[in-house]
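Q: What would this chain look like folded?
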Amino acid sequence: TMSNYPTSTARKHWLYPDVATVERARVDARASALREKQSQLAAAGESSDENALTTEEEALILRYHEHKIQTLCVAFSLPRKVNYTALQLFKRCYTTTHVGEHSLKIIMLTAIYVACKVEESYISAEEFCKGVREDPARVLAAEVTFLAILKFQLVCYGAARPLDGFLRDIEDGGCKA
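A: My prediction, written as structure tokens:
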């Protein structure tokens, strides 16, 4: 059956009315994580002398990891749809999660690994992690946490997917202009 975007969970849970709503979600996630960190330090009788990253620094770090997702997908010769899906899943994750809560590298790798499954371009965790010199157990252990952050909603509607289909139709001669 065809998926129906207007009634999809992707639209219901991941389409925000405006950029300000996304920014509020990120600010709330950041504030919650920083409060949690402060309470952990206070409970341990420690004080925090470290300065937290600024929101601009956090955004820069996220952009770096988004670029790495694209680089890794190309290096592994993964289909473009895996690249698109991995990016969407990663961005969704860090809309509601603070950058300091989980290892960015592991979440980035998990996003690619999960995207491969979602887009039916499966690669084993062992094979994938061998190529990036990471312990597959770490990616597999992060998978359920990653899925929970995404509320187990993995359907992605990439803007480039209809264009890819159209170009395939043209190449196959199925589209007469």
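The chain has eight helices and no strands.
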